[in-house]
Write a structure and sequence with these properties.
heterodimer; A: about 200 residues; alpha+beta; Alpha-D-Glucose-1,6-Bisphosphate, Chain A, domain 4; globular; B: about 800 residues; 3 domains; 7-stranded mixed beta sheet; 5-stranded mixed beta sheet
Chain lengths: ~200, ~800
């Protein structure tokens, strides 16, 4: 099961400030519903987990996150993650995220991801994976923006940025719940009934 | 003395619709299936399976699982290696991994097994086994698998250019198999004024029996004896295989197939679960039970079909077919575990000239490896006969449409005529008997075919009609009863079958068979044959099957072979008893053997009807006062090697209405006429036909095993995989003609698979016929509403 997503999320913060969050993989993970970064294995490798729940099926994908590229001039991050769940599922993701300048106070987060899911999760959850991925990313953008907004107005020195970013994170849900997904799908369906295109 | 008609009725023999003997226990929940078997100290096994379809195994971590209280062992390929059991031979001359050895080749492949005190602990321990995979490119499409430079799936076969069936032309190629006369077929096509060609996909489906596969293996370390209760359609062959693999003498291996909840080919093979449970029982010295769940059954045990067929017909303008050519790409999955007679890697696919007298024919099948589960069994059919019948029945419709000839008429023009039997087909089969014209005429009259075609023509002219109407015809011939040992063997054992009958002093009898019933009603029909042959009531004839310690060696039940092969063995064993009974009767009546005549249940002295001995009297005498020089007792054994296959046939007609708005296919009428030769129990035949038609309906209208690009099987639960219930199933109308097989002792041909084989192309033909006036010549199965609706849109008739 393969999902490819190209997304643009407008942010109400400037690109430099948003970059302080994006360049920090722990902060990025903290914005991702259900994701957590654990031990750092070496300069570019981390251990991590992602918890997802779709209806009765829940999975905790544990595995490796690899930092492929951090390009400050382009404000671009590339990571690759791969993990497996004990219940017989596995997943991998390649993600490229970059920030574009809109004006002095606004920027845009451009994300491109390629997710592959195998095993029981693909078999049971296959019908919902597209929608779930979209919702995860939408929630990610909201969390991400909140993290960037919460930063002090002056860009801090790189060394302390990570700590500041982590401290600025708002409390968040640690997993994406089935209820949230169903509610969101329902809202879209209702909007569709009234001719609102999403 | 009762009247003869009453005595015949009292026997409830051949032709009697007596109730099934086995139903008393089944309807009361008193059946005894593998999962009902509980032995003292029994442990439970569960299987760690691969979530990915193609990957290298980097590491397997057992430690955490072994720490769970109640876990006895975790076995991987490395543990089986010292026993040389990490790979096993398949029925098709290939090898299959028992537990994935360094690499997984399909999703849900067996990677490790866990043995624990109970099923729950085993399931927890499966989750605690950590397996690290390194993904490899996945090949799902067999055409892609054959391209130059395609990923090599079977690294274990590197450099082997000769397979079990000749040259392998690509690392993912298994075999090329040809039948017929290519030069003659090519010549027919070169001179034919009309040719048609169509690409037909027979999708991968699964037999999906109600009871999944499983076993209870119990090794007695003191006696050195292995007893295994197993869901097997061929227990004797399994015993031979287990003995060869384990080194335990065959006399100390006992395989018992208890009650079996449906097989349909799925329970022919030997699966890794059986092997691992047996190994675990030997290693641990305790009984080990393994029963798979539904997802495991659909995902990993034997599938059926997956034939990508290119069919071609060459004909004269009047519709007379002069040539047939077929090229097939056969997707066999990761290991070639196709269950076929050894010499026939594509089974009996070369029955694909069907009921038609075709001068020249040729077929070629290429087997291919892909990242899918192995199998390729005959799902309620005789070895690939379903695929063959689908091909020819679809192609003759394609030709009829091209020539604008009625689909019944084109069949009449091409049928093998009654007087041509025994008929030699261009592929080398000798059809035993048939009367195709009579059968089709009976069906067309019963449904008023002309009126149906008129109604269809009117609907086609009416743009406001809410539905499309289709009429499908299939006039099929099967080849079943494998088979003559000179042609058919499994692992070198000829495909005979056997029967042992012991008649008791009081006139009852027990018959033991080499076959095994899975719902066919053997305990009833076999007893009926004995009843008629030796004149004792079928009520007092016990039939036992499935225990290799008591039954004579037989090749098992699949491919509609029980009645054609074992049914003949019974009749001939009974005739041995009958012959001895005649001698005893002559002694008792003090006349010569030739002075007696047989009547229903007794020998009478010719010319003196007052003097007779009933079979009951003779049974007592056999143990009490046998004639001088004749050994006491009344027993016989017969091993029957059939001289030929049998060729059941039928004429089916189906009317469908397709909703132009939803694409839903409604079966308005289905009329099935079968000719299975002599009919032993008409009620059981009716039940078999209803079951086969329902499974055919399932295949044609809904069953499929879709895979995504990563090799995930997206239809392995009953949420997705279509098993029709009484709600979806149409009403069936059945009919019959009787054309006995001339070479079978009682003229019977076998019936259980005809309705499956014959109905599937009939449904497809009906659906395509609904679109025929719009230029559609073929639609691949399954004909689900979604897929049919897409055709409605393509043909611009959707509403």
């Amino acid at each position: 099961m393969e999902v490819k997503l190209e997304k643009r999320f407008p942010l109400a913060v400037d690109a430099d400030r948003a970059w302080l969050v994006l360049r920090d993989i722990r902060a990025v993970a903290a914005s991702m519903p259900g994701a957590e970064i654990g031990e750092q294995v070496d300069a570019n490798h981390f251990q991590g987990t992602v918890k997802v729940k779709v209806g009765p099926a829940s999975a905790i994908f544990g595995g490796d996150v690899q930092l492929l590229e951090i390009d400050p001039p382009a404000r671009r991050l590339r990571i690759s993650a791969k993990g497996a769940d004990r219940g017989g599922s596995s997943a991998s993701m390649d993600l490229t995220a970059s920030l574009g300048v809109v004006d002095e106070k606004r920027s845009v987060l451009v994300g491109s991801s390629h997710v592959v899911v195998n095993g029981k999760f693909a078999q049971f959850g296959g019908r919902l994976i597209g929608q779930v991925s979209e919702l995860v990313l939408a929630q990610f953008a909201i969390n991400f923006e909140a993290a960037a907004v919460a930063l002090p107005s002056c860009p801090a020195a790189p060394a302390s940025a990570a700590r500041q970013v982590a401290g600025a994170m708002a409390p968040r849900k640690t997993e994406l719940s089935a209820f949230a997904i169903m509610w969101s799908l329902m809202k879209r369906w209702l909007r569709g009934l009234f001719g609102v295109r999403t | 003395m009762n009247a003869p008609v009453e005595r015949v009725a009292a026997l409830a023999g051949i032709g009697d619709s007596r109730l099934r003997k086995e139903d008393a226990r089944f309807i009361q929940g008193k059946g005894n299936y593998v999962d009902d078997i509980k032995l003292p100290g029994m442990l439970h096994m569960d299987i760690v399976r691969a979530p990915v379809a193609h990957a290298r195994i980097k590491r397997i971590r057992k430690e955490e699982a072994l720490k769970i209280p109640g876990v006895h062992a975790v076995l991987t390929a490395d543990d089986l290696k010292p026993l040389k059991l990490h790979w096993m031979p398949t029925l098709a001359g290939d090898v299959a991994a028992v537990l994935a050895d360094e690499k997984v080749h399909f999703q849900m492949q067996e990677v490790a097994v866990v043995i624990a005190d109970d099923r729950y602990i085993a399931a927890d321990a499966v989750e605690a086994v950590g397996v690290e995979y390194e993904d490899l490119p996945v090949l799902i499409d067999p055409h892609e698998a054959l391209k130059p430079g395609a990923t090599v799936l079977r690294e274990d076969l590197a450099g082997k250019t000769q397979g079990a069936h000749g040259l392998r032309t690509h690392p993912n190629h298994i075999f090329t198999w040809e039948a017929g006369d290519k030069a003659a077929a090519d010549a027919a096509f070169a001179r034919a004024p009309v040719t048609v060609k169509e690409q037909l996909l027979y999708p991968r489906v699964h037999p999906c029996p109600l009871e999944t596969c499983g076993c209870v293996a119990s090794f007695d370390p003191v006696r050195g004896e292995l007893t295994t209760y197993m869901t097997s359609q061929a227990p004797h062959v399994v015993r031979t295989v287990v003995s060869l693999l384990s080194g335990i003498p065959e006399s100390k291996v006992r395989i018992i197939s208890p009650d079996i909840g449906g097989g349909f080919g799925n329970k022919v093979g030997v699966y890794p679960g059986y092997v691992c449970a047996i190994v675990a029982s030997i290693v641990l010295g305790k009984p080990v039970k393994w029963v798979e769940d539904r997802i495991e059954n659909i995902s990993s045990t034997a599938f059926a079909r997956d034939y990508h067929m290119a069919g071609e017909l060459a004909a004269r303008p009047d519709g007379r077919i002069i040539g047939l050519r077929v090229n097939v790409i056969a997707d066999h999955g990761a290991f070639d575990a196709c269950a076929d007679p050894t010499k026939y890697p594509a089974g009996l696919f070369h029955i694909c000239s069907g009921s038609y007298d075709i001068g020249a024919a040729y077929c070629r099948v290429d087997g291919v490896y892909t990242n899918k589960a192995p199998g390729g069994v005959a799902y309620r059919c005789s070895f690939r006969v379903t695929e063959a019948v689908y091909l020819v029945e679809r192609m003759i419709d394609v030709l009829a449409q091209k020539l604008n000839i009625d689909k019944a008429e084109i069949r009449y023009r091409n049928f093998i005529r009654k007087e041509q039997f025994p008929y030699h087909s261009p592929f080398g089969f000798e059809y035993d008997s048939g009367d195709y014209h009579t059968a089709l005429t009976k069906v067309l009259d019963a449904v008023d075919y002309k009126a149906l075609r008129s109604e269809q023509a009117a609907k086609r002219k009416d743009p406001s009609s809410p539905s499309l109407m289709g009429i499908g015809i299939a006039t099929f011939t099967e080849v079943v009863g494998a088979g003559p040992a000179k042609m058919c063997d499994i692992l070198g054992v000829g495909m005979f079958d056997s029967c042992e009958i012991r008649v008791h002093p009081t006139g009852s009898a027990i018959a033991r068979m080499g076959t095994i019933t899975q719902g066919q009603g053997h305990q009833t029909t076999y007893a009926q044959i004995i009843a008629t042959e030796i004149g004792i009531p079928s009520d007092v004839v016990q039939v036992e099957e499935g225990d290799t310690n008591t039954a004579p060696y037989g090749l098992g039940t699949y491919g509609s072979r029980s009645t054609p092969v074992a049914g003949a063995a019974i009749a001939l064993a009974a005739r041995k008893i009958h012959a001895k009974a005649r001698k005893i009767a002559a002694h008792l009546l003090e006349v010569g053997d030739q002075d007696l005549e047989w009547e229903i249940d007794r020998f009478k002295v010719k010319g003196d009807p007052s003097r007779s001995k009933t079979m009951k009297d003779i049974c007592w005498a056999a143990y009490h006062e046998p004639p001088p020089g004749l050994e006491p007792g009344l027993e016989a054994v017969h091993y029957y090697d059939p001289p030929n296959f049998t060729y059941p046939f039928g004429s089916y007609l189906c009317v469908v209405d397709i909703d132009k708005t939803t694409g839903e296919v409604k079966v308005r009428r289905f009329y099935a006429l079968d000719d299975c030769g002599t009919r032993i129990n008409p009620m059981i035949i009716e039940g078999q036909i209803h079951g086969g038609l329902t499974e055919g309906f399932a295949v044609a209208l809904g069953q499929q095993m879709p895979f995504d690009a990563q090799g995930n099987l997206l239809g392995n639960t009953l949420m997705d995989y279509f098993l029709p219930t009484a709600v979806e199933t149409p009403k069936w109308e059945t009919d019959f003609t009787v054309t006995p097989s001339p070479h079978h002792p009682i003229g019977a041909k076998g019936v259980a698979e005809s309705p499956h084989v014959g109905s599937i192309p009939c449904f497809s033909n009906a659906v395509v016929d609904a679109f025929a006036h719009l230029g559609v010549t073929h639609m691949n199965m399954p004909h689900t509403s979604w897929r049919v609706w897409q055709q409605l849109k393509t043909s611009a008739v959707a509403r």
